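anyone else get weird line breaks when pasting these?? whatever heres mine. first is seq + tokens for prot A
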Amino acid sequence: MNNIFKITIIVLVAIIGISLFYIFDNNSQNLDVGLVAPKEIMAGVPFDFKVEFSNQMSSVLKDVILIVTIPDGAAFVGSNTEKLVDSKDIGDLGQGSLVSEKYNLVFLRGINETQKIKVLVSYSLGSSKYEKESEQDIKILNSGADIQIKAPEKVFSGEEFEVGVDYKNVSDVDFYGLEFSVEYPANFTFLSSDSKPDSGNNVWELGDLRKGSEGKFTIKGSVIGPDNSTVTFKPKFKISLGDKDYFVELNDVNLVISPSPLSLGVILNDKSDYIAVPGDSLKYVISYINNSDVPLRDAVVRAQLQGELFDLGSLDTRAVFRKSDNTLIWNSSNSPELNYIAPRSAGFVYFNIKTSNNYPVRRLGDKDFILNVKVEIESPTVPQSLNASKTYNILKIETKVAGSISLSSAAYFRDADSGILNNGSMPPKVGQATNFTVHWDLRSFATDFSGIEIRAKLKDGVKFTGIAKSDFGNAPTFDEKTNEMVWNLDKLPANKGFVDDPAGAVFQIEATPSSSQIANYMPLIGEATVKATDAFTNNSIELKVDQITTALPNDITIGQQGGVVQP
């Protein structure tokens, strides 16, 4: 009988669940939501987006809310671009009632991409709440104000070139208050434009642009940069819609700097990826090659030193040193070979310098130091193929400076500050156990470190009492397999222990001297090994710290011979 009752209950629950699913699904299906919008639009051209839905159910829908979400890069015309969600409280919707809401939208970026507009309608029916979602894909074509930026694919460093700007209204609407601007790369020098900029050197007011109207102008300038590097121009235009100004982003224009007729190379200590340390000796070799078919005369090489860790007093070079901007200058006066660089020939200059012995750390955030050397070479001789006032090249070499990590290791018998009570006799006696606390203080300089591991083996007659703690990260643990104390830390921030307290750990050991150690200091823990990874240079670092004995030089309560083992 009980089994029949249980089966009946299970069947009823299943029937109710299926019925509720059907009711919920049916209620959702009986709310028709229609979206009306063009499948394709032009960037910068406003368009209407309509949402329509009707109540096809036999009951009144309560608390109806309509939410329209547009993607980043779109805007509700008349609103700020930060507004990406519009919510409307429709109220109650009677049987057969129709709601129609229209939105005026504009896309400001995403040319040649497909974007989604999402719609959600929520409502209450009885004591239950329901939602109906819908979405519309819209393909963004080219800009309605078709602005073409025409630039050469490649130019030489320092060469003058023109950027053409052709614009035309290819849409079915008129644009008002049109303004074109371009963000130049940092190494671009503006020379002129046949249409005078209205603001600075990169903003042009094009005014009202009627359907089919067009115009053009050119920008002249030059870029300076390393061979084969890419520079990017970022154009956009501003339109006025609904008393609001909107910026429409256009596709970036990229330009590659061709290898110069006068090439440059820099190498440090015979390596292309050298990592320096404080107190290091550095030798920079600057090489150059005349790749042209004409001799280059009166060449000048400049090397500007940038970085606080350069020890300028140790500079060794035949170049002239300009103190105002820390620049070395080689010319035909101090390097006669620069007077005439034959076609297809090469040469080099060099200088020696040291890094400072100490990191220039003054605050916690002073880290990740870099030595920069910006090298330039130029000659007034210009090959016929080059449209420039001089033959020029530039190169920058960045050298990372490794950080450092240090560990101080000390033991104490009387150590009230640690909060750990050490028992036993002092001086230590044969066969009697004495407790000591071992302190590890870890410091870092100039860079963050990761994967830190410290290991030290317990000596014969010494064991871990199980008491350990740390004021930074995990406490040390005992590795029974290797008989070592181990302290692992995931990370150690730069300058820990320099501008604040070091990362500290303390653990207690118990030492029982043997008769063979009478009249000597008893070894407590062996040499500590520290392994870590410099997070800035990715270099692995390993250092060792001397072993600890019962001499206890850091415990001021122990005399000079106070740690000698007694019978």
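and prot B, same format (seq, then tokens)
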Amino acid sequence: MTKLMSPDVTPAPRATRWSVGGLVMMALWFGIVAGIVEGVGLLLFQRINWARWGPTLHVSEQIIWISAIVDAILFSGLTLLIGLAGRFIPRMSAASLVVFALSTATVYDWLALTARLYPASCLLLGLGTAAVVTRWFRRHESASRYFFQGTAPWLAAVLVVAGAGIQGRIWFREHRALAELPPASPGAPNVLVVVVDTLRADHLSGYGYARPTSPNMDRLGEQGVRFENAISTSSWSFPSHVSLVTGRYQFEHGLGRIPPMAAFGSSPDLGGFPTLGEKLERQGYRTAAFSANRLFFSGNLGFSRGFAHFEDYFHSPADMFVRTLFGREFSRIYLVRTDRSKPKRVLRWLGFDSLLDPDAEGWGNSSGALGVRKRASVVNQEVVRWIDHTPQRPFFAFLNYFDAHGPYGLPRSYPRPAWPQSSEMDLYDDDIRYVDDNLGQLLEALQQRRLLNNTLVVITSDHGEGLWQHGLPTHGRALYRELIHVPLIFWYPGHIAPGLRVATPVTNASIASTVMELVGAQPQSGFPEPSLSGLWDAWGVPPEWPATLSELAQNRYEDGRDRSGNHQIPTSTTGSMKSLVTPQWHLIVHEKLGGQLYDWASDPGESNNVVDTPEGREVARQLAERMQGMLTRSFAGDSSPGRDLEWSARHSNSHDSHSPTR
């Protein structure tokens, strides 16, 4: 027999028997390793890819343990399916197939998170790598089994320690900030600032709108002071929120667009200016922010400065899932489909409604991944939970409700208002009513805790919405009135007389200085805009007041729905813009396409551009000089402001093709 056996033939290694537990240990090993690397990579590449900040989903440090848990669960589920199939296909090596599948998924995960390769390329590279790994595994299968079973528990322990360390660091940072607060003044009021994202003032019933969209905001306005002509500092969220928390115009803080970020380093510093939260902390306030706009009002962008507690991402299991790499892939493939598609109907039947509630975050991603909306009801829960945590100190809570921002639409369980439900405007009004109802519920929660009567409530917005006026469906492309006219209400029982109305145009950058005055801080609060109390305390003729400025940096990225507006009006696609609002006039200046002038007091829809009339030329010249004076006021950090105001010779009949639609 020995003579018949070829000396060159090596007997095949005996197949290693794998139990279900052994396969699961392998899955946990792959899932934890893939997830930890994924989490670190997502954190890293969102900064490396800062120029594409808008069209993507974002994460904070918790993603490291969240990704690992999600990947471990997904990989274990896939492994169990393969193991089950192996019972019915005796010749199939379940262990080898598991290694091949998990290696493919791991490599795909690590390549796709860079956002630099097409999904098909990531898959091909993953398959090729998996083939090599699987061949190696077959030669060392016995040793591999002991390796996975021996190291998987240690990896699980590392994951637990990492998760506890990340969450503990967040808790410790907040606890230390609270412990270091100075004593608050006796009787210091609580401060609640509510920013209803994308809310144009003329769609509130208290501002003259025909539909009853805002009964709770109307009531606050009737019991406090309502500014009829508040103007936001920009027509999109990021620079406007910077102005809200720093009390500075865009030309001062310099953040007209997302700033460059190093792969490793600190978040943007908001121009280096102090924030309202930091000032109130020095008055003994515990501070927190609760954001449903996770795209442009988040801790990643520096807004956590001055807020000991900041809640933005990971409000639900659905939100946690879609922020992982495989969650994004699921969103890219399935969540972008219509509500009538079979995958969405199955998910809804299974009770995953929150997973099917799309957000604007991720709206521009070339691969189509969408985020999960954080509703006003969730923001309320976060606020109340935080308020109950340390009730012995006055609080400052800054809220962003995002429900009026597109894509419009109510939660499926929320009853539809009585008006028609056939247009985008109808859906936009629905969302305003939903936000207003939740605001009322939050105020009721404060009343139940006997906190409301000693709370200063401020209601405003970061910008308006186009709703197809001037050819623009959304915002952030121009500075027309519908895009910058926002509500502004101060309610403080016993300190602000009810029923006050202020018609003078004001900037909501004055909120910071006004809040500081109302809580009893020193007049020199560090915020340059004057306190608005000078307007509602005035008797008879109101004092002379500064004109309000709005600014818009150039943004070459075009959203498909806004592209048509570029053929009708000057937009930020081709250059930066600035505007100035006085009690009668609204001047809009485009750095390349000249100026527009509207008598908004008699033409609130701004349909008649009078810049080329004899009176209009003179008014525009005077307002341009006034704008130049505002832009050249001396503040630290200014750099050659106002260089794009040399426009007076540019506006001519050659720009008639850019005149506003009528």
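btw re prot B: The two ends are 100 Å apart (CA to CA). Residues 1-12, 634-662 have pLDDT under 50 and may be disordered.
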